[in-house]
Amino acid sequence: MTVLKRLMDLICVALFVATLWPVFIWVSCLVLLRDGRPVFYRSERMKTATQPISLIKFRTMTADPKDAGVSGGDKAHRITRTGAFLRRNRLDELPQIWNVLRGDISFVGPRPPLRRYVELFPELYAEVLRSRPGVTGLASLVYHRHEEQLLNACRDAEQTEAVYTRRCIPAKARLDLIYQRKRTICFDIWLMFSTVIRRMPTRMKQSVTRQN
Q1: Looking at CB atoms within 10 Å, which of 77, 89, 127, 131 has the fewest?
Q2: What are the start-end ranges of the H helices in 50-184?
Q3: Distance CA 46, CA 120 (A)
Q4: 69-114, pLDDT tens digit by residue?
Q5: From CA 66, how far away is CA 74, in angstroms rounded?
Q6: Is the Cβ–Cβ distance between 34 and 80 less than 8 Å?
């Protein structure tokens, strides 16, 4: 991560904290009152191909000690009503501001993967994770909704795992590597702005969808 990118992250953290702290408190109280403790969910993710981090989100699902892998249709019954609202509006990701402040992730970059997928695709993630993982990124903007559609159609853990490893990981990695080649501060600002206003690069999204 360059000094300029890190400086931009810290400035954005300050702006987000200054403007979104009432939302953070409101969501915390909402989860606590409607779903109980714990309010936050910690997930091990990979910062690099060998370095794990603890990624923080608002809890959106009922706890399951046997939980593993990405969320698909097989886990839909565990999503709370509050959690569905938070996921739909991406409010569950607000606590990741702490991860950005710590330097675990940046605001823009590839989404930090679970360890199991890094171990399944070590060469691929060795390339992808040359970029600091982020809260949002090109793959998140272009592929997120298509990925949701694919995974929500899965009815068991085996199908979810097969769809994610065969279709989602390669598609997102291609986009993450495109970002890696083209990243600039201006590109990062554009991706953050696009995330906020929820406008996706339609042509690129259609192109990626056709390939899958």
Answers
A1: 77
A2: 81-88, 96-102, 115-120, 122-128, 138-152, 157-163, 169-182
A3: 13
A4: 898 888 999 999 999 999 988 899 999 999 999 999 999 999 999 9
A5: 13
A6: yes
Report the distance separating Cα 133 and Cα 48, nearest Å. 8
Maximum separation of any 2 CA atoms in the chain, in Å: 45
Token pair for residue 5? 């990118």
CA distance 142 to 147: 10
CA angle 1, 114, 105 (to 5 degrees): 25
Q: Could you tell me the pTM of the whole model?
A: 0.88
Whether the link from the prior residue into 38 is cis, omega within 30° of 0, is yes
Task: Establish how many alpha carbons lie within 13 A of residue 24's alpha carbon, considering only the half-sphere containing its beta carbon.
Answer: 14
Residues 6 or more apart whose CB falls under 8 angstroms from that of 52 comprise: 44, 45, 46, 115
